UniProtKB/TrEMBL annotation, chain A:
Domain DUF4032: 233-395
Annotated source species: Cellulomonas alba
Entries under InterPro entries matching the protein: DUF4032, Kinase-like_dom_sf
Pfam families given in the database record: DUF4032, Kdo
Record-given protein name: DUF4032 domain-containing protein
Length: 428, 400
């Protein structure tokens, strides 16, 4: 690194000294290849690069100083209230090039391991309902953000990352630049976010069609509208007031069960009765996502996504039934399941394949594969055989998703060259 | 309240692309805040308190004030993002107080301007109309009209990649223009730019707005931006509208001490002094007051008056006359020079005066070819008739 007269100001909760070795005196656009990680980038109005740092990958975004600090703070608040979002690493200001010209501040975030930008998902030609599953994940994220009082301002597929979550996806917020955290959102804020999301998603899908990444006959408008529908459905289920006669009190538990099914825990439920006590009104006041993942965590210590947890819990239940231990304490059975079933299965995947998928996702696929083999062979295929077949026949063809995401070099070139808008000129 | 849109006002369905505005046919896109109030849950003081403001059709109105003054909240109330707890908001004759943001026929500019790489410039500009189901021919027509205004006509069939940064920005602007909204809303769009570009860009936005003639409400905390861009400026403080007027009005006849100190750079010198023998007493210096001014003083003023004088309203006078100022710094700007100086207690209560430079400090514009030295004492006098007088009690302006 050439020495440069710059006095860097680094704001970070947990600064990594290796940050200092990066070429901050060079505009991000011109950073040497050796520093970069070859990850596909979404559409952004800023220059964004993925950078290798101490064996991990960070995302670096050039952005105005005040906005950088603001977004850093917002991301910190979001992770504090446990909303799925990228972890902020820090803000660096005071950058200068060797001629002493000031360079833009940068916001640094942690790259989300095993995460997939929507462009990478489409270029992998996944199942045709990928779009629908992405939309479902985004709807859940948006509802969770809105429940937490976060107004996004620029909801889009580009501003979201996706992680596999059993047969679905879990969505993470990656760009909070236009967002605001409020005590409560107004209907107008939620509606506006939803409308922006709808228009952006349709635009992004139309763009994929224009680039021939997505079939011409996919109805982009219908997919965008589906987000609005899915969101509205979920919002209702989580927040709507429900009234029923006093004799129908079972509906309280039914509501709680329904929310659990949707993956939410009820933290606080408002129950009111009218004066003569004939009508009961209930409304969930505090709901927390992650019902299944919390339960699995409590039982096994495994920290996984919601639908992965659902799948693993089902397998745990099966194990419990198969070993006839329904009367035993669930926590003991869970411990045995973990050590006898889950861990041996995941560990029997050779090391070189472990970067392909998260362990919980691998286990989910093993369960799928066991079902497939058992169907084929008309018998219960033991897990050890399943693992062998899976490692031999399925896993080698899977892309490496820990960091590289299996994007073909051709696709990568396409995402590398995405045009962006120079921040420095609003109306040239 | 979705049924609202279908009833009275078919001409205003612009965002769904159902009409092309023809000059003279559509009603005026005025914006009216009528006692509009926003109180955030859990707070007592309104963030915006009974705002009354009428924005004319085609006008560029700037909302300006320090942070927390309610300017962004006012804009978001107009956008439909903040609830209006009492009062109402009208666009044209239509009460939009309870209308959803997307049905208000407004465009928030510069919120989302990432361009789609595989779409042509024309598609980038027109895709929102396509979503709304606007007929192809009409989309093309609107895109071409917008491209003409934005000097993008020859690039319509290219991909964004082939454009310069500035051209890409204009495509993004075009996206808002083709929707033909009745009102553009802009919330600190320049806050992310460095000082030099901010200056360039603000004139470009202002001139584009004038070419388009679309009613625009613009929020900034920067009074220079407000003065240079707005047809009129509305100054807010603590959720309360202080004054609305042209940049000239605000500068020449500020309604109160707050506006006087907020508008103008460097800021006005303002001090509160006792009234003795028909003059404001600035120590040994005196500012004679007209009898009509003195008759307007109230008990609340406790026989004091607040006097404001801009840096350019001071004349240098021979030593011993006027107000002595000890020179701390001279700021030379080529065309102008400003002395930042301290007052001395010998001449009244120095700390009664404040300016943009701080308490007991005043700013004096001097001839850039004859600047005093640091540490020197200069003597200044307020040029006759150029003082601004305010009630010491309420801070309201007193006109003779």
């Amino acid at each position: 690194m050439s020495p440069t007269r710059q006095s860097l100001q680094i704001t970070a909760a947990n600064p990594d000294p290796a940050l200092l070795d990066l070429p901050w005196h060079v505009p991000l656009e011109d950073w040497p290849q050796e520093n970069l990680a070859a990850l596909p980038r979404g559409i952004s109005r800023h220059i964004v690069r993925f950078v290798r740092l101490s064996g991990r990958v960070i995302a670096v975004k050039e952005i105005g100083e005040t906005v950088a600090y603001r977004e850093y703070e917002l991301l910190r608040q979001l992770s504090r209230i446990d909303v799925p979002s990228v972890e902020p690493v820090g803000v660096i200001t005071g950058r200068r090039d060797p001629d002493g010209e000031p360079l833009e501040a940068v916001l640094i975030t942690e790259h989300l391991q095993f995460s997939l930008p929507y462009r990478a998902l489409f270029s992998q030609s996944l199942r045709p309902d990928t779009a629908t599953r992405l939309i479902d994940a985004l709807a859940v994220l948006l509802v969770r953000l809105h429940l937490a009082g976060f107004y996004w301002g620029d909801v889009s597929l580009s501003n979201t990352l996706f992680r596999r979550d059993a047969e679905t996806f879990a969505a993470y917020l990656v760009d909070a630049e236009t967002g605001d955290l409020h005590h409560n959102l107004t209907v107008g804020q939620r509606e506006y976010d939803l409308e922006v999301a709808r228009v952006n998603i349709i635009g992004e899908l139309m763009d994929l069609q224009a680039g021939e990444f997505l079939e011409e006959d996919v109805d982009a408008v219908a997919i965008g509208n589906a987000l609005a529908e899915r969101y509205t459905e979920l919002w209702r289920a989580l927040t709507e007031v429900e009234s029923f006669g006093y004799g129908e009190r079972w509906r309280v538990q039914a509501r709680i069960d329904r929310l659990n099914d949707l993956g939410f825990d009820v933290g606080e439920l408002d129950i009111t009765t009218d004066v003569d006590g004939t009508t009961v009104r209930i409304q969930p006041k505090v709901v927390d996502a992650g019902h299944h993942s919390r339960r699995l965590m409590r039982l096994t210590g495994l920290d996984v996504q919601e639908n992965q947890a659902r799948r693993l819990l089902n397998d745990l239940d099966e194990y419990r039934a198969a070993t006839d231990r329904q009367r035993e304490d669930e926590a003991f059975v869970a411990h045995d399941w973990l050590t006898e079933i889950f861990e041996p299965a995941v560990r029997s995947v050779p090391k070189k394949f472990r970067k392909k998928l998260e362990p919980a996702q691998i286990y989910h696929e093993l369960l799928d594969h066991r079902w497939y083999l058992s169907q084929q062979q008309h018998r219960d295929v033991p897990m050890a055989d399943v693992v062998k077949s899976y490692v031999a026949n399925v896993l080698p063809d899977r892309p490496d998703e820990q960091a590289i995401l299996g994007v073909q070099s051709g696709d990568l070139r396409d995402t590398e060259q995405l045009p962006r808008i120079e921040d420095d000129i609003i109306l040239g | 309240m979705s049924e609202w849109t279908t009833s009275t006002d078919t001409l205003h369905n612009g965002s769904s692309g159902t009409y092309l505005p023809v000059k003279g046919l559509i009603s005026m896109a005025t914006v009216t805040f009528d006692h509009a109030t926003r109180i955030y849950p859990g707070t007592e003081r309104p963030a915006v308190d009974a705002l009354n403001l009428a924005v004319e059709d085609g006008e560029f109105l700037v909302l300006v004030g320090p942070s927390g003054c309610g300017k962004s909240t006012s804009l978001r109330m107009l956008a439909g993002l903040e609830d209006v707890n009492s009062g109402s908001i009208l666009i044209g004759d239509r009460d939009v107080t309870d209308v959803q943001p997307k049905d208000r026929d407004i465009a928030m500019v510069f919120q989302n301007y990432a361009l789609y790489p595989h779409m042509t410039v024309a598609d980038n500009m027109g895709f929102a109309l396509k979503i709304a189901g606007t007929p192809k021919a009409e989309i093309r027509q609107r895109v071409e009209e917008a491209a003409k205004i934005l000097d993008l006509s020859q690039y319509l069939d290219r991909k964004p990649k082939a454009l310069s940064g500035g051209q890409r920005q204009r495509v993004a602007m075009g996206r808002a223009i083709v929707r033909q909204p009745q009102v553009f809303l802009m919330d600190e769009p320049l806050s992310n730019l460095d000082a030099k570009l901010r200056v360039q860009t603000r004139t470009q936005i202002a001139s584009l707005q004038r070419r388009l003639g679309v009613t625009t409400v613009y929020v900034t905390h920067d009074q220079t931006e407000a003065l240079t861009m707005g047809d009129r400026i509305a100054v807010l403080k603590d959720g309360v509208l202080q004054q609305v007027g042209t940049p000239r009005d605000m500068y020449d006849t500020p309604n109160n001490v707050f506006v006087a100190g907020f508008i103008g750079s460097p800021a006005m010198n303002i001090g509160t002094f006792p009234v003795l023998d028909g003059s404001a007493n600035l120590g040994r210096a005196r500012v004679p007051l007209e009898r009509s001014v003195i008759s307007q003083l109230t008990e609340d003023d406790r026989n004091h008056i607040t006097v404001g004088f801009r840096p350019e309203s001071l004349d240098l006078v021979p030593a011993g006359e006027g107000i002595p100022v000890v020179v701390n710094i001279v700021e030379e700007l080529g065309s102008d020079a400003f002395v930042y100086g301290s007052l001395t207690n010998e001449f009244g209560h120095a700390d009664a005066v404040h300016s943009g430079a701080g308490d007991a400090q005043i700013i004096v514009r001097v001839d850039p070819r004859r600047v005093p030295d640091k540490g020197e004492t200069i003597y200044v006098r307020i040029r006759g008739g150029e003082q601004h007088l305010f009630h010491a009690g309420t801070g309201e302006r007193i006109d003779a």
